[in-house]
Amino acid sequence: EAQVTQNPRYLITVTGKKLTVTCSQNMNHEYMSWYRQDPGLGLRQIYYSMNVEVTDKGDVPEGYKVSRKEKRNFPLILESPSPNQTSLYFCASSLGTGTQPQHFGDGTRLSIL
Amino acid sequence: QKEVEQNSGPLSVPEGAIASLNCTYSDRVSQSFFWYRQYSGKSPELIMSIYSNGDKEDGRFTAQLNKASQYVSLLIRDSQPSDSATYLCAVLSGGATNKLIFGTGTLLAVQP
Q: I want to staple B103 with a disulfide (CB 3.0 to 4.6 A). Which of A18, A35, A102, B4 is the partner?
């Protein structure tokens, strides 16, 4: 089954404790992206990657890192999480750029205390 | 001005009626437009894409695009309670970044 898989689905942690949210897709998609969703603000892009070893900042990259060492994986790293990063996070992928729609993972709900 | 604007709702319609959801966007060079449905706490699910002016129909859903007016809409015919969700309008920005810009969504409530 074609899918985007995120882990963990839920995480409660404390300020400053490094964490990684994994994202993997099995569709051989070139493009991958991370979003956060907050009430009243909608979905905002954090980082995106157009191919292996090619990543770039989205609209809200502060406090986050990403890497794209393999085509299928695009982890999101919070080196020193803070409470303002409490949010619902989605990973998405698409076949390429242009008209291709993005398909979303199931989401990760992060709570930073 | 927000790049993609939607009425937040809630839009309440009776079961069996037509639900009309609207979206305006600011980037004149945008060429690709999408409607996603999102149930509470779940991920956005693509339901329609439209790329040229006019109407595009898929089952009970019709997307309408008017690039001159920078306006996209989604019609849901024979609305069902299971259609109750937040509908997100997304616009692919001009250029090669494949950046999707989302509206904040319209909450649709279909009353049995």
A: B4
